[in-house]
């Protein structure tokens, strides 16, 4: 979200999103708290989900796509015996079953959900069908038939069995995997029905709960009377480039960096640490000048070319206020 007014603030804040509000609501709340001109989030969490919600301010919004594509880790509780319209505890009951699978039955069913799989999204999702959101159609009593979509699930692990009605799982997955669908499908594979009753995101790309802060902690700091609200932030932000730490780094000279910032390609012959074939095999490089990340580039046809550049004050003397 961008505003006409507000401060130019750049960096990441990792929110431990509470249960209840939407991700967009939390972004808007933080925009007001920070008096920020521009912000967005790195991956929606449902209102009934909590946990890691990366929020990008200013220049960090340019790196949101790389967080959206990053590996994520979740923990959820699957409640057996009752399926619901939303595949979570917010929906209306659909079907019931008396069967409660054993731990061995659950573990035997899990391998089929790992790897590159096809997954049917929840009917109550933001996917568009004929120009309308699937959840709007479902609420209007016309739930759409959603086709299976490719999904990458790295691992699904049974963590705990608090009682026969519940099982707790930890999942590591790629972009676009619906935990509600996964919980629904695990129950079906075990010969019963079920829905998610608790969902928490533990990690999103390089960000995990150790980086996160609750909204109460942020608001508390905001009201500190000793803080100069005109120049400082309620809490410090992580650097813009923090979102890119999982991408391999490549150091270039200041002259090469300036050329890339200006949209010029740089001859790849100067890089000796690996063969050109190795460089071209990697889709993206995190390019640095004197240890400072300036953007993302890729090798193509023997040249290094810009994909998305983040900084230029090293080369053109910008005097942006740095609130990080």
Automatic annotation (TrEMBL):
One of its GO terms (biological process) is mRNA pseudouridine synthesis. The active site is at 46 (nucleophile). GO terms for molecular function: RNA binding; tRNA pseudouridine(55) synthase activity. Responsible for synthesis of pseudouridine from uracil-55 in the psi GC loop of transfer RNAs. Keywords: Isomerase, tRNA processing. Pfam families: TruB_C_2, TruB_N. Its EC number is 5.4.99.25. Transmembrane segments: none annotated. HAMAP family: TruB_bact. It comes from Aristophania vespae. It catalyses: uridine(55) in tRNA = pseudouridine(55) in tRNA. Belongs to the pseudouridine synthase TruB family. Type 1 subfamily. This is tRNA pseudouridine synthase B. Residues 32-179 form the Pseudouridine synthase II N-terminal domain. SUPFAM superfamilies: Pseudouridine synthase. PANTHER family: PSEUDOURIDYLATE SYNTHASE TRUB1 (PTHR13767:SF2), TRNA-PSEUDOURIDINE SYNTHASE (PTHR13767). Residues 180-219 form the tRNA pseudouridylate synthase B C-terminal domain.
